[in-house]
Design goal:
This protein is of the alpha/beta class and 308 residues long. The chain has helices at residues 7-21, 55-58, 68-75, 80-90, 115-124, 153-165, 183-187, 202-210, 253-259, and strands spanning 23-27, 38-42, 77-78, 127-133, 169-174, 191-194, 224-225, 264-266, 277-285, 290-298.
């Protein structure tokens, strides 16, 4: 038997997976972007895209990685003044590879923004795209520190400055896990997208989302709450001898929907689309079985997929 690898089909599927797996948390209509849009991209992550976490999976060699910036150059007009400011700054602030296995920094030093640069960019651009990156890794967990689970002061200031001067802002999170999200309420960006870590085709899949070639259909695998202390596991995490499940059998979303719904920013299973759906169900019962049938109807103006 002969097996043939169709590389084009393989990369097409990877690109589709990136787009459909992303989770759109909020969108006031700024997404999808129009092709004629002028975009100012903020955050060094536009140059230092994380295709994956570290460890055994992350150290797999690939022929190339398509970054979001590569694709944005083809799809929209980029603000060259902002782009050049980052390119100049990165010459003296190269990517920090860390010290090897399980000792890589979870994030990179961010460029402090000059208010004048942001103000001018807002006059010359239609939309601001803010990219924030975090790697993840085998052999150690994130920590409750800035640059890991929390944003750094420089990242927070970047969000404050850009959302203050731009009417339309899109935050893209190139991360391997959820991070603290209190800044959403504080800065009110127009759209927030968990793009995760997209592998080789991360840039192509993300551009498909941002330009509306594919509608996001991913759903949150976690519950995102306002404070790390709202998670009942926090006081007992990392114990040397045993794991205490203080919430008993109410693990995960069960705890929050039962005891603490007021702490939730985005619930487990949450995720928006560029279109809308109507779901109707029908239940029939017999002596030994229940049959549930769901009918999903796209009621919007664009194609899309829905998770039941």
């Amino acid at each position: 038997m002969t097996y043939t690898l169709d590389w084009q089909a393989y990369t097409k599927l990877a690109r589709q997976t990136v787009a459909e797996g992303a989770v759109l948390l909020q969108n006031d209509g700024v997404l999808p972007l129009q092709p004629a849009t002028t975009v100012a991209v903020f955050g060094r992550n536009q140059f230092n895209y994380y295709k994956s976490g570290t460890g055994s999976g992350g150290m797999v060699n690939v022929t190339n990685v398509v970054s979001p910036l590569d694709m944005l150059r083809e799809d929209v007009t980029l603000n060259t003044d902002v782009l050049k400011a980052y390119e100049n700054w990165l010459e003296d602030h190269p990517f920090d590879q860390g010290e090897g296995w399980a000792a890589e920094p979870w994030s990179q030093e961010e460029m402090p923004l000059d208010a004048t640069l942001v103000q001018q960019a807002a006059l010359d651009s239609d939309v601001a795209l803010i990219m924030i990156g975090r790697t993840a890794g085998e052999d150690r967990d994130n920590t409750a520190d800035p640059g890991s689970y929390f944003l750094t002061e420089t990242e927070q200031e970047m969000l404050r400055l850009v959302t203050t001067h731009f009417k339309q802002t899109v935050v893209v999170l190139n991360v391997g896990n959820i991070i603290d999200m209190r800044w959403v309420e504080e800065t009110a960006p127009s759209a927030v997208l968990y793009a995760w870590q997209g592998g080789m085709e991360g840039g192509t899949g993300l551009s498909d989302l941002l330009l509306g070639r594919i509608s996001p259909s991913g759903k949150l695998p976690d519950t995102i709450v306002r404070s790390l202390d709202d998670y009942p596991s926090t006081p007992h995490f990392g114990h040397a001898d045993h794991a205490l499940y203080q919430e008993d059998l109410y693990v995960g979303y069960r705890y929050f929907e039962t005891f603490a719904p007021e702490t939730v920013l985005y619930p487990f299973g949450y995720g928006l689309s560029y279109t809308s759906f109507n779901i109707t169900t029908d239940v029939t019962m017999s002596a030994d079985a229940w049959t549930v049938t769901a009918t999903v109807t796209n009621t919007g103006q664009t194609s899309g997929k829905e998770v039941i």
